[in-house]
Description:
Layout: E1 5-12, E2 15-22, E3 27-33, E4 46-47, E5 75-84, E6 87-95, E7 101-110, E8 117-124, H1 130-143, H2 150-153, E9 157-159, H3 161-165, H4 171-184, E10 188-191, H5 223-232, E11 236-241, E12 245-247, H6 252-255, E13 263-264, E14 267-268, E15 274-276, H7 282-298, E16 303-306, H8 324-345, E17 350-353, H9 355-358, H10 363-366, E18 371-373, H11 380-389, E19 399-402, H12 411-419, E20 425-428, H13 437-453, E21 461-463, E22 475-481, E23 485-492, E24 499-503, E25 511-518, E26 525-529, E27 534-538, E28 544-552
Parallel strand pairs: 9-10, 9-20, 10-11, 11-16, 16-17, 17-18, 18-19, 19-20
Antiparallel strand pairs: 1-2, 2-3, 3-4, 5-6, 6-7, 7-8, 12-15, 13-14, 21-22, 22-23, 23-28, 24-27, 25-28, 26-27
Helix pairs in contact: 4-5, 12-13
Amino acid sequence: METEQRSFRWGHEALHLEFVLGDDGSARLTHLGLPGEAGNGPRGSLPLVEVTATGHGRDWSGSRLVQTAIGGRLRHRTHRAARDGDWHTLTVQLHDPDTGLAAEVTYRSPDGIPALRSEVTLSFSADGGPDAAFAALTRYRRAHRRPHPDHLGLPVIFNDYMNCLMGDPTTEKLLPLIDAAAEAGAEYFVIDAGWYDDGGDGWWTTVGTWEPAASRFPGEKGIHEVLDRIRERGMVPGLWLEPEVIGVRSPMAKSLPDEAFFRRDGVRVTESGRHHLDLRHPAARAHLDQVVDRLVGEWGVGYLKLDHNIDPGSGTSAHPGESPGAGLLGHNRAHLDWLDGLLDRHPHLVVENCASGGMRWDHALLSRLQLQSTSDQQNLHLYAPIAASAPTAVTPEQGAVWAYPQPEDSLDEVAFTMASALLGRIHLPGLLPELGPEARALVHEAVAVYKAVRADLPRAVPSWPLGLPGWDDPWIALALHTPATTYLTVWRRPGGEATTSLQLADRAGGAAGVEVLYPTARQAVATWNPDTADLTVTLPTAPSTALLRITRAELDAP
Length: 558
């Protein structure tokens, strides 16, 4: 029987490369030269990578280097071509299923010049490469975290901050947003920074008491008019807090003892007009407990977004003989203990770890808190690689992604920003009342699609069919896999061709079909090849995106 072979080509007007793929997935270079020159064919081909596994050759060789070349065992996973200014780029991903060795080969050639530069990156995972490693890490994170209903419910959250009110909430501005958020399908409504700011010269140095600003919420009911409206529209109210800081002009800076703050050499630490609480001290902890119990227990707030916009330096040496690092570790442990106590008293409270848009992001916090802010990136084009990469560091059901449609956005841009959040947690800001009818319909459609698929996300594991995203990649892809279904978001940014091919390896083998879930009215086309597990996706415009669902065929009953 002859070996079945497939091929692909790459190059430009001055350089031409041909590759052949065997039926076992092996990839070989069959031609490198000028366009029009005859190739060598499969007999004269070379593996794309040659790897010498030192110390694993035949044992009669003194250095054990004989028969250690394993380049021929590397199998093709996927390849993609791109253009970066005057440079043409081809990236080919290979792997050895037996050992877990993975290779990424990148060819670069300047336009119009017959020159080629190649680079090879090797990685290793005993259980099948980066995708398998991150799948295992996702399962581990789920197994070692505090149980909470939010991990299964995944409610849709509206937050008034990003590309919206930007820290300037008032009753007048919030009421129409609340109505629009409810109409869009939001289930939580979070009032972000600024709700306590009653001065005209900024709140940065005055925070600490966490009382609502009468100038922002006038009238007899004050902020409770807004909180009541949120509940009337069927949503749970939330508030932003930065609990560990006290502004130097805050009344709390005088009422709390020095021992309740970070100190070095006996002097209270001040950074950008703020002090940092030391939660090992009972007065510091009692202050925060009083604040949270008032907001949650008395006001009925069901969501807290906890921020941390301060760099306290090396730590605190408040205790005798203590190094700043030891003091910082002591505070960190006390902070975790405080969070445990908060959730023990209010078990249905949802707490988001923001920390300057994800700058304090670790498993100690993720194992306790329900959501993690992934970024404060304001550019929808640049958020795509952040959203796609987020499952490397957080479970999909905890990764909060801003989806911020703007009145000036094109319909493709509205769909682009909404789709970025559909395989994570929707954080929906934006001036929704100012959107046109078609844009508003795209927002509503995205939320409805999310509610239809979110039950699968807490048991799905991630993979990256085009490789882990690069900051400037024109095509980006994130897949989430359940035993029966694969959800795939693909983003196309300016600079890429209209069509790309993705290989979902064994996870989606035998798929029965592919369906475009969002946006249904745009022009995405996806074609599945069950023989090769290749998916061809066409997005005619850039930027554009699509959320796809790939379902497996059930085996025939015996």
